[in-house]
Fold this sequence. Notes:
With 302 residues, this protein is an alpha+beta fold. Helices cover 19% and strands 31% of the residues. It contains eight helices and 19 strands. It has helices at residues 27-33, 44-49, 52-67, 71-74, 102-107, 183-189, 193-196, 243-250; strands spanning 2-8, 11-17, 23-26, 76-77, 82-83, 94-98, 119-123, 128-129, 134-136, 145-146, 149-155, 171-178, 181-182, 202-210, 221-226, 229-235, 261-263, 285-290, 294-301. The strands form three sheets. Strands 1, 2, 3, 4, 5, 6, 7, 8, 11, 12, 14 and 17 form a twelve-stranded mixed beta sheet that branches. The longest helix has 16 residues, at 52-67. The mean pLDDT is 95.
Amino acid sequence: MKFVTFKNGSGQSIGVVNAEGSHLLPLADAYENMGGKSAFPSDMIEAITQGEIFYQEAEKTVQWVSENNLDSEIYIPLESVELLAPIPRPSKNIFCVGKNYAEHAIEMGSKDDIPEHIMVFTKAPTTVIAHDQTILTHSEVTEQLDYEGELAVIIGRKGKAIKREEALDYVFGYTVLNDVTARDLQAKHKQFFIGKSLDTTCPMGPWIVHKSAIENPNKLDIKTAVNGEVRQDSNTENFIFPIEEIIAVLSQGMTLEPGDIIATGTPAGVGKGFKPPRFLKAGDTIEITVEGIGKLRNKVES
């Protein structure tokens, strides 16, 4: 199932998007049509925290609507609502893995830059925006705004010292994320946080796909196009550090919680990797597609 957070006349709600990606089922409204008081929170983190109970209730609700032929009555066009990021305001910084594809590490430096151990940095929660929302150029502070298409993992269970072989049991689902980066701020401040944390520099969505729909997250095609031109084209099988290892390493001495977001790294083809570099500018449209999940699209504006 594809889970979304959206706004309509009644405020923020959670929904399930149909297979075609054209309509959504407002879970709270549908549950009330079943004759009960809604069991669904309006907050995605709260829903994820409910674990399998949330997923099973959502599954039961979707099935009830289908069995009673109420799809046309209860599903609403996706275009009629405002999609928010699946998790509009993360409860903590977004975890990000750096240089997790060898070719990207090389394009940013040389073979000597391929890491032996997982590199981790974070982005502030205030960076998050939704599918089709605007990425600001921040021209007052940067001239080197760059894109980074990534698969993101959404943690579903609280855990610490998680074993690698059990790591995927702690995943709720997956989404698409653009780790937009101000390269000149990275160089200026000699660290990643400021250059990664400008407002609007973490587009994510358009939805979270439940883990049950993804057979192997370490084998998914990923592509990034700028103005229709494919710049990044790879597969998560090229990860240096697979998702299981990332989760296991992050959880050593640090508690992971439901709703935590982990961006797994970007492939080669970022703007800085071109000679000369090809940074983002006002008017550019970035589309990131991850197999089995969907397409995240955002436009850059000043």
